[in-house]
Amino acid sequence: MRCGYYRTRVLDADGKQVSLYAPTREELYQKELKTRRQIEEIIFKRKHPTVAEYCEKWLLMQSAKVSPATLRSYTINMNKYIVEPLGSMYLSDVTADDIRLALIPLTTKSAGLYSTVNMLLKCVFYSAERSQLLDYNPCEGISAKGGKQAKKKDALTDEQTKLLLDTVKELPPYTFIMIALYSGLRREEILGLQWDCVFLDTPAPYISVRRAWRTEHNRPVISTTLKTKAARRDVPIPKCLVDRLREVKEESISEYVIADSEGQPLSASQFQRVWKYVTVRTAKPRNYYKYVNGQSIKYTVTPTLGGHQKNNPKLVYAIDFDVTPHQLRHTYITNLLYAGVDPKTVQYLAGHENSKTTMDIYAQVKYNKPEELCSVVNGAFQRQSSK
């Protein structure tokens, strides 16, 4: 007892001594009981976190490793597909069946989303296992395959490429499309490209990939953080692209190759408007809604190929195929393989970190032609059939 107060000491959750004071022994005893209960609760939560608590901790640990956009995507998917069905459970109580049940709603979603959520689940539980919070890992044996496979996007044919370029030649997306088709850069690499990385006057003109474009709250962010280490590369460019870039550079007021009217990199919504110059010229069905007697009625209109838009007679529906920015890059890679460029060189030019990505495209290009494989197969079995 000191200065009219009684004192005792307890060890807190971190193992440090904490002094407690009270004017009477009874109050000190009650205070000690309450403090010990709080400490036990903290220790229990540390050893037995809920799925929601550990997911929050895991995301915090990732914040130093991934870009803000990636972290935002992780957070959205984790909250919706992991925390929502499993969040209230203690991490150590989750079983493999609980994981499988949580994945059921994702079977109707895209294969890409299924794979992402599957990856997040495994990362969270493997991390918890390494931290000795689990006796066993319920994600072991959970298949990474699931979800609906996306419709395969084929490379554009030479005829489709020519039609696309002719259609948009005097329009805003023309330079973007040229760069994608003839250098294979990703969308974020093209939109982050600056003139100091475009070398047009060297014996072998090339583009040096050193920056990438991302957006935060629709605003562009240009950084030197690329998708992978392999994305940092120097890509030789053909004469047609060299000539186009010379024209653009002469009139440019910006340090960016693709820029808005003020010379700034495009925002996400600005790029969407630029790409719309392509989509509005396709002859694919369009949906629109009208209110009739207070009800929203859906109508579908299919433009006639070669026809003109009613409100803009200058706009012609000239494109009879779907096209996406990534499809342009896929076309570049496919054309290299068709030309006989070896897969390892293609892997470098495309900035693929994993050779599997390149080889999958290579197999699709090389082995998807029965007429060319016929002689190979006949040769392989000729000896057997002659016996």
UniProtKB/TrEMBL annotation:
Residues 49-125 form the Core-binding (CB) domain. Keywords: DNA integration, DNA recombination, DNA-binding. The keyword DNA-binding applies. Residues 151-378 form the Tyr recombinase domain. Pfam families: Phage_int_SAM_3, Phage_integrase. It comes from the Bacteria. Site-specific tyrosine recombinase, which acts by catalyzing the cutting and rejoining of the recombining DNA molecules. This is Tyrosine-type recombinase/integrase.
